[in-house]
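Case study.
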Amino acid sequence: MDLRGHLECGGLVRAQVALGRYVLRRLIQAVPLLLGISIASFAILRAVPGGPTSVYESNPNITDEDIKRLEHAFGLDQPLPLQYLNWLGQFVTGDWGYSYISHRPVLALIGERLPNTITLMGSVFLTVLVLSLIIGTLTAVKQYSLFDHVVTGATFAFLSTPTFWLGLLLIIVFGLQLRLFPLGGMATLGAPSDIGDRLRHLVLPVATIALVQLGSHVRYLRASMLETINQDYMRTARAKGLGEHIVIARHALKNAAIPYVTVIALDLPELFVGALVTEQIFGWPGMGRLFWDSATRSDYPILMGILAVSSTLIVLANLLADVVYGYLDPRIRFG
Amino acid sequence: MRRTRPLARAIALVVGVGLLVGACAAPAAPAPSASEQPRGGALVFALWQEPESLYPFYATQTVSGLVSDVAVEALIRVDPDGNYLPQLAREVPTLQNGGVKLEGGRMLVTYRLTPDVRWSDGTPFTSADVKFTWQAIMRDPKVVSREGYDKIDEIETPDPVTAVVRYREVYAPYATRFDAIVPKHILENVADVGKSDFVRLPIGTGPFKITEFVAADHITAERNPNYRIKDRPLLDKIIFKSVPSREVAVAQLKAGEVDGMWLLLEAQVPELEKLPEIKILSVLAARLERLEFNLAKPGNPADPSVPHPVLGDLAMRRALLLATPKQQVIDKLLFGKAKPGNSVIALGWAAPKDVVQESYDPQKARQVLDAAGWTPGADGIRSKGAVRASLRISTTTGDRIREQVEQILIDEWRQIGVELTIRNLPSSVLLGTWSGGSPKARGDFDIAMFASTPGLDPHAHLSLGYQCRNIPQESNRGAGSNHSRFCDPQFDRLVDEAGASVDQETRKQLYARAQRIVNENVVKIWVYNNSRIDAFRANVGGYRGNPWTSAVTWSAEDWFVRR
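After joint prediction, the assembly is written out as follows.
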């Protein structure tokens, strides 16, 4: 019997149990946190002046009785705490309510927008991931080179650029003037659907979000790489006679990427939430626009649904980041 | 914005291709002879708002009517001049043709329906659908308005092409009702229309049928093979494309990505007019931008029995009118694409031709104030006794044109010795409800600037907006929209009398007298009458503007596109 193997195995089991307990504790802690967030969201939405029936006010064909009848039909005539509890009770049982405006189920409305947002934000996610790894590594390896200076300047420039301005600029230059890409939407209407057309529609919105995000991500990876490159084990790797490419890729990048993974994990909720401003500018039928349109019409059920899901995802993404970090860096212990 | 659908004759000034067409001419876009109209093809039309629901009784936004109008028809529709035209009815019921009968205090309206009409799914359209439409409105708590339908006792359907509507009282605007008919065979067993597909893919009798609804992306309307009019529609397909804003719609129109777009701002017209590949369609609409005076002392809520310290004086209101340069606002801010307002009802049969507001004359304004005892102080601002002529104006925040109008007013009114300060509010607050605490509804304002669009039948607008009983206050739990707190017994009598008559000529005279009283009291300043402006690529034709329909799509069956 191999005692050493047995011991290691026992250690692994203990670590797994500790991790399990940790995750469970964090999940239990998340419940009051999420309840608090939902109460705050509900309160803030109701504190905003106006309301779902204010759009009817200036219509001469809509009488006060009509408005009272509608408020009753939507349950808006009940006391606010009761309205919240009604919403919560329905939400946890899977009934997310109905839009006040279109009267469609909230789940269906979210369901039809979600694939579009995942397409857009997934493309952004992959683009940013790949480009930031390449550019971040290169700038760190060639620190203070011309390339490094140009990238550093550009990242700061994009980091401080508002997306609405960048998006409009890209539309004007690449859409209107150069006619390289369509001005908005997901596909050319009236034409048979093909993948090339879809990709062309993706380019400008993805570029808008990715350029701004790349700024922070490249900075992050560069800093992390620089720290790693100066570690003792890098010298050891080179002393073993490994080629520079292998040293960078296998030893430096792998270690530098550990803190970066948590940054990436925290980006994951965006796959659901979408991009409020960019979707608006490019007419992308995603979650961001659904939220925006619902907010302008005080469509509480949709807003609450989106806020509840996105806050849950953010809490989960934080937990995921912590867990993954522990896996990748064995020095971290859960307890 | 709301849908206007209504009654008889009106002025429709249409600028098509920069061409001014007068009242009686059928306003038309470049109209080639029938032989050269190309058939078939698809047209892409840009919308910068998302239709909330295509079920006519849930929709409140103009853009929803814009889309559903290509598929859903009315018993009676309105032509660009404001005349009623039969659509699914064979004729417009009137007292003269026996379609309307008065029995004691009750009213019977008999509709003879167009025979051989089919729904787009092929099922015949009958009087049972008319009756069902009424029932659908009355049984569903989520419909936006039951106006008129709640005065119906019963609808009899003696045969498939006759529907007899029994109103329990004389209901003068009867011709504006049944502005959309929905199919019984589809909806009869649907418990909640909101949860059905009908709100997105409505079945109608119109030239097109809605075949695809991709939220926030596009809506496709395809030719209805069962449409009753031969050789119509000309197009095979209209695709309504969702774009995020007017600016994007203009950019896509210029780039040729869309063939037409809905509702431009006046400021966008000069740039597009220069382009030969774009045509502008402009129709004078019933929408009237006004400065609303609060005649009662502001408060939350205001007490209508206590006059406003400054605006309670008719001389002051008249002076402010005289010092308001309407034409300058139109020329400078609206690029001439509007008309100075003159009366409560600006367009249609109920618009009085001879009721006008005094024009800009600041010299006269000063004389009026001098005569009324408002004397200028050291800073040039007038006062009367302890009351200083200082007023607050409120409009919707973020509206650039309105904010510029405020600047003009501050300047102009200061020159006659009246101080104006700004207190703008988000539109949902300013134009909100009594229970929601809107300062306009509750009377906590001096002057409010906003727009309102009376329907072709003026009764609801005049009654709710100006009669004493419609001053919102605690005792009526905030009912009514007489936010000026105007009260004149003679006005009330004239409007009540008009509402009890179904003879259009009689009603027209009474409403004209009532509107004259409003003007004599300078309850509001009618700043300008907007135009409805749409734009198309030059290769599109057949469209006609109509201020009485939701939008230009009322003429969609005649649209064509040359590729």
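Observations recorded in class. Residues 1-34 of chain B have pLDDT under 50 and may be disordered. The CA atoms of residues 54 and 108 of chain B lie 30 Å apart. We will return to this complex in the next lecture.
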